[in-house]
Design a protein that fits this description.
The protein is of the alpha/beta class and 354 residues long. Helix 8 links the parallel strand 6 and strand 7. The chain has a 6-stranded mixed β-sheet, with helices on both faces. The chain has a 5-stranded parallel β-sheet with strand order 3-2-1-4-5, sandwiched between helices. Helix 1 runs antiparallel to helix 3 and helix 8 packs across helix 9. It is built from 12 helices and 11 strands. It has 2 domains: 185 residues, Aldehyde Dehydrogenase, Chain A, domain 1, CATH 3.40.605.10; 128 residues, 3-Layer(aba) Sandwich (Aldehyde Dehydrogenase, Chain A, domain 2), CATH 3.40.309. It is 40% helix and 15% strand.
Length: 354
């Protein structure tokens, strides 16, 4: 199976996923294998929702929409033409996946297969429902995928390289067990936003999506904001109103109530709009329903501070001229070439075959 065939397979997958990217699932008769998979995918989405309470149907739909938009023939070709692909020898890459948001490990899965390598995937218990049926669909498109994809819940064996994603704590164990293999080991990272006070209401509304999408559980969710000194927070909270209904989600509400109670008992000053808490804090990783913030007076000093903490930061949402900054509202729609932790996964995988 050559690169062109792999691109076509993932392009077809993108079209298939697009049918499940909005509240109304719409069958497209032109998409192959719908007779086998359309109803099954609808059932699988329900299974995933009941298996993990954070995986609401809306969040799964959003994940499918993001991937269907990314998996176009133009995008896949623009991505892969940046590299020199070689054919031999094929390697088996063990992928240890996180499970914080739906299909969070899909980019690694895609990267290994698009480079012609084999996947040995260990799924998170929190996200073990969706990817296997996607793999089945790929097998139907091209039977060559069947021998290239394996899922396991057992000890990982017979692999050539490792891509592992986890917490700072689990990363130490990954280093210990997999340090002798070529590897990419990812630790905790969080995303930040920088507010200048000149943002439009639409930009701040877009920022609310960066904060609340997936309940803030993703590394690309904004969990820390830098505000200018003497900022008028009313404009910020007015924009957050877009997500006010999130407080009606029981799991989220329980976290909000708990965190608010803990902070108030500790006499910690908060800014509160009844469904999110702003807490002044130097840390980057905030609890669910909480966004940490700091104020700044000098953008040059702020850039220096962020550069010193680069290892803790996944995305920077701003318009102050920081390298690789992301526009408001775009953190959860990365391009195929936007790599986690800034590590080029495809380059790593292609070098395995040299």
């Amino acid at each position: 199976m050559g690169l062109d065939q792999r691109i076509q397979a993932f392009t077809t997958l993108g079209k298939f996923l697009s049918q499940f990217s909005s509240e109304e699932y719409t069958l497209d008769a032109n998409i192959p294998f719908n007779d086998q998979f359309f109803e099954r995918m609808k059932e699988t989405i329900q299974q995933a929702k009941f298996h993990n309470g954070w995986f609401t149907e809306n969040n799964i739909q959003f994940a499918f929409q993001s991937w269907s938009e990314a998996l176009t023939e133009d995008n896949l070709k623009a991505w892969t033409t940046q590299y020199k692909f070689n054919t031999q020898p094929t390697k088996t890459v063990a992928i240890i996946m996180a499970g914080n948001i739906p299909l969070v490990g899909f980019h690694d899965f895609l990267s290994v297969l698009i480079t012609g390598n084999n996947v040995l995937a260990k799924l998170s218990s929190n996200d073990k429902i969706l990817l296997p049926i996607i793999a089945e669909y790929l097998n139907s498109i091209n039977s060559s995928f069947k021998e290239k994809i394996e899922f396991t819940s057992e000890k990982l064996e017979n692999f050539d390289a490792v891509i592992a994603t986890g917490s700072n704590n689990t990363a130490r164990y990954f280093d210990y067990y997999f340090g002798k293999y070529p590897n990419i080991i990812r630790k905790n990272r969080n995303s930040i936003a920088i507010i200048t006070g000149n943002e439009t209401p639409d930009q701040l509304k877009a920022l609310s999506n960066d904060i609340f999408r997936y309940y803030g559980l993703g590394c690309r969710n904004v969990s820390k904001i830098y505000f200018p000194e003497n900022y008028n927070y009313d404009s910020f909270f007015n924009a957050m109103f877009h997500w006010k209904e999130i407080i009606n989600e029981t799991k989220y509400m329980n976290n909000y109530d708990y965190n608010k109670a803990v902070y108030l008992m500790s006499i910690i000053k908060l800014l509160d709009n009844e469904y999110m808490l702003l807490k002044e804090d130097e840390q980057f990783s905030s609890p669910i329903s909480v966004v940490f913030y700091e104020t700044y007076s000098d953008t040059i000093l702020l850039k220096e501070k962020l550069a010193a903490n680069e290892a803790n930061i996944q995305c920077v949402v701003s318009e102050i001229g920081i390298e690789n900054e992301i526009a408001f509202g775009n953190t959860q729609n990365p391009q195929l070439w936007d790599y986690a932790d800034g590590i080029d996964t495809v380059d790593f995988l292609l070098k395995l075959k040299q």
